[in-house]
Design goal:
This protein is α/β, with parallel strands linked by helices. Helix content is about 20%, strand content about 30%. It folds into three domains: about 180 residues, 3-Layer(bba) Sandwich (FAD/NAD(P)-binding domain), CATH 3.50.50; about 120 residues, FAD/NAD(P)-binding domain, CATH 3.50.50; about 55 residues, 2-Layer Sandwich (Enolase-like, domain 1). It has nine helices and 27 strands. Bound molecules: flavin-adenine dinucleotide. Flavin-adenine dinucleotide (FAD) binds next to helix 1, strand 6 and helix 8. The site of flavin-adenine dinucleotide (FAD) has 35 residues, from helix 1, strand 6 and helix 8.
């Protein structure tokens, strides 16, 4: 291993940049290179589903340019550049730039995957209207979607999960007519019990959002006025534009092609080390000791621990209870979903002001919770009682 070769981070999302910042607090000298398939702008991705109503442009969401980040981090940042191959024996990356597809090679001393996640593939939808169907998972996507919304009024939103509900909340407050379609019987059904999901649904419906639940979009046809969607239930929705928010899938293909172990995400231990001891992973692309969590709080914890490890002090990450604030401002909500596979039952207390739902196991131990409306005041008290994600 040649110390002159840089530590290389693939990805300039929150995971890549948080790690670089934490690392530079501990080590100012090791050469550092970050590589990004996009333009390397530093921005807060969670704002993408809560900015239309505030009229925020993509430029306003950009916290710092890649140039500014390179200066701050004393790092080289290669933008619009894709890593297409990792030669683990030679410790060499193959890079292909967007501008003319120029290929280059880069040696690394240690390598970090912070490659994030992509939108899950669409279910089979027939028809010729798919060109009007958007997904938002980057600042560039937000720009395209926001531009396409200009002079439009009616939005078909596919997906009533966390991000779908946030977009419904944002779009309706920005003055759009929103129709939401989801296969599940109530919003956020994968993480909330029915009473809490219905509570959010009611608040959004009161603001003007129409829900079509327990059904799916079978066809989207292009029409002179926009699109016409036919649902499996037979209902027809006329809209100008569609947005799908159907979940994310970790970007693992580069790691997999390099022979690094992957499962749902890139498999790491609690020190964020992959099956190759010189290669690490964090953020949406990583499956940390069996935990795949696509949120900011876990990646922040991972960035701190991994920075220590990379600076010479091997450190394990420890996930505590990590509640997530759902940005449905029409009905403020906090969720701390129980770990998949945990045995237990929801115990729900509902009032006109909000819902408190506790997920308890057979011995009464709190394994997760969901709070809506005024019940969110109990967030800290429940967080203290709740079992940590990693015991
Ligand atoms: P990404 O942001 O996806 O970054 C991946 C980076 O890798 C990019 O720079 C990409 O260009 C680069 N890359 C990938 N492959 C290559 C390659 N081969 N070569 C070069 N570069 C490559 N979380 C919360 O906790 N709270 C919220 O309220 C919340 N709201 C959200 C709202 C929306 C709309 C979305 C989409 C997500 C939200 N999340 C929220 C999740 C959170 O934003 C993500 O967990 C986090 O941003 C992931 O960061 P990341 O750096 O791992 O991945």
């Amino acid at each position: 291993l040649d110390d002159k070769d840089p530590l290389v981070i693939i990805g300039t999302g929150l995971a890549g940049y948080h790690l670089a910042k934490e690392f530079r607090k501990l080590d100012q000298r090791t050469p550092l290179v970050l590589i990004s398939g996009d333009d390397g702008t530093f921005y807060s991705k969670p704002l993408l589903s809560a900015s239309l109503a505030h009229g925020k442009t993509p430029q306003q969401l950009a916290t710092a340019s890649a140039e500014a980040m390179a200066k701050e981090l004393r790092a080289e940042i290669l933008v619009h550049t894709h890593v297409t191959d990792v030669d683990r024996q030679a410790q060499v990356l193959t890079l292909v730039s967007d501008s003319g597809g120029i290929r280059a090679e880069l040696r690394y001393s240690r390598l970090v995957f912070a490659t994030g996640a992509h939108c899950a593939p669409l279910p089979a939808i027939e028809g010729d209207g798919l060109a009007r169907l958007f997904r938002v998972n980057s600042l560039g996507d937000y720009h395209r979607f926001r531009t396409a919304l200009t002079n439009r009024k009616r939005v078909l939103l596919i997906g009533a999960g966390l991000i779908g509900c946030e977009f419904a909340n944002d779009l309706v407050q920005a003055g759009y007519q929103v129709e939401v379609v989801d296969l599940q019987p109530w919003p956020l059904a994968n993480m909330l019990p029915e009473a809490a999901g219905r509570d959010i649904q009611q608040a959004l419906a009161q603001a003007g959002v129409t829900f079509h639940l327990g059904t799916s979009v079978a066809r989207i046809e292009h029409t002179s006025a926009g699109i016409r969607a036919q649902l499996a239930s037979g209902d027809i929705i006329e809209a100008d534009i569609a947005l799908a928010a159907l979940g994310l899938q970790p970007n693992t293909s580069l790691a997999e092609a390099a022979g690094v172990a992957t499962n749902r995400g890139i498999v790491t231990d609690r020190q964020l080390r992959t099956s190759d001891t010189g290669i690490y992973a964090l953020g949406d692309c990583a499956e940390v000791d069996g935990h795949s969590l696509y949120y900011v709080a876990p990646l922040t914890q991972c960035a701190r621990a991994l920075a220590q490890t990379l600076a010479g002090t091997p450190t394990s990450v420890q996930y505590g209870c990590m509640p997530v604030a759902v940005k449905t401002t029409l009905r403020p909500t906090v969720v701390c979903p129980p770990q998949p596979g945990n045995e237990g039952e929801w115990q729900v207390t509902a009032t006109a002001d909000g819902v408190k739902a506790e997920f308890l196991n057979g011995t009464g131990k709190l394994l997760g919770f969901a709070l809506t409306g005024s019940a969110i005041a109990e967030r800290d008290a429940l967080s203290q009682r709740c079992a940590p994600r990693m015991p």
